[in-house]
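protien #1 (seq + structre)
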Amino acid sequence: MQKLSLNELEKKAIEAALDSRWAEALKTNQEIRAIDPHNIPSLLRGGFAAFQLKDFDTAYDLYKAVLKHQPQSIIALEYIEKVSINKESAVTNEIKHIQLDPDLFVELPGKTKAVVINQLGQRTVLAKLIVGEKVNLIIRKRHVEVRNENDEYVGILPDDVGVRLIYFIEHDSVYCAYIREANLSRISIFIREQSKGKKVERMASFPLDIPGSIARVMAQQTEELEAEIVEKPKSTDTPDGLDTTPEVDEKSDVIEDSVIADLETEDKNVEEPIMGIETDEEEEE
């Protein structure tokens, strides 16, 4: 059988990883290093594949090898820490095994959204998160927390997305969320609409331009909102159950008021959706 070239092996390794065939990905990256022992991308891919397979010793060795060539590699340093935390968890049988559905992160316009969350929780919690792991969205006053299945705090949704989801959830809509990217310094989740309440059934859960939608409302209400902020003392409320104490400032009030005003505008002026998704344009006066 003819041996594959280095480029062909690279392609094979990447395709295996994209399809979550971690054992094949690990083996293919080993074949790459047999040809090119100092191939840093192959070491990183192999380390990640080993980590997904819970082969923490192999993952540790591969990331250590990266540090010999790139001592400041953030990816290698973070995963060595994650490996150490997960090896401790293995002793107490806390390791999770998840069969990743290849269609889990298929994007549907208006119905799904990838979100980078804020105010991350403890590193010992973040280190054990796995791509494809289901997480829960919990409403805490004006914010939406992200918690794992053990009810451990992971982070909080950005205000614009969070306030919009609160509106939909309070009108009987249902959403599910999964870990899409899991690093110690960055966590991304994938939110999927499961069903919508009758009042909001013709509104998109995730319009294509949430920030732009907010900006239009803010432009119309700037003077009124600024006057309101001057009169209102700074709130000292914090979301219940947070492991950290986030600051709730006037900006959050502006975003919340703007999103709600925008949602009310959508509700009043909703048009027949095109292919199931309505547009987010305002009528010109």
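ok now protien #2
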Amino acid sequence: MEEGAKKAIERGLAWCGPLFVVSIIYTWGIMGHNIPPPNMMAMTPDQLISEYYGKYPEIGAGMILSATFGLFYTIWSCLLASLMRDEHGNVGALSFIELAGGILTGWLFAFCSAMWAACSILTGQVSPEIIKMVHTMTWFIFDCTYMITTIQMCALALYTILNKKQTMFPAWAGWVSAAIGIGFVPLIFMPFVTDGPFMVAGLWNFWIIFTGWIFAFFGVYNFYVLKHVYKSTADQAVAAGRLATV
């Protein structure tokens, strides 16, 4: 592939990052009325319908769109994995772990959004008890499989911090990535609480960790990825800490 075409592809893939953030905030957050999400663990099935699905019929369309745009996270993660190379240009275990986490996180957004879309579209056609069961089960999947994203963030953190030759990402970004990734652990409490910081819309589980993941982790790394792909080939090799061959 010609160098110009390669750079054009990398830059297009890098812009999938901002596209993911903007689209998810609008489709999942605003259209899906998930800022914050309903506290289903403290709601009866009828309340979930009357206060959420029945009240906001646009949730279905928002979640269908979210299922589509959520996979832009996977595309961006594939680009990121391709940048995580050693000084000889080889990819290692940390690159594959980041890739696996990114693929599965994107799939998680797509799958869970589709399930919530089904809850919205089928409201009035099936019982409120079924709607609550599917809605709640999907949130369990969404939150309690946090390790999918944690391993991605920790692998990226290790690469950033320990690879002293690369200058694509500052060390502080790696520490932030590790902190937020580990900070996902309290999500395991979500199924068992109805209020407090660890409920689905709680101070820690939603406002600190979820928003931190979008802006302090994803936003920061996406900035540096965009910055990197607009450098010359020689400057990219230097920034990546590779033995320059150009």
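The mean pLDDT is 95.
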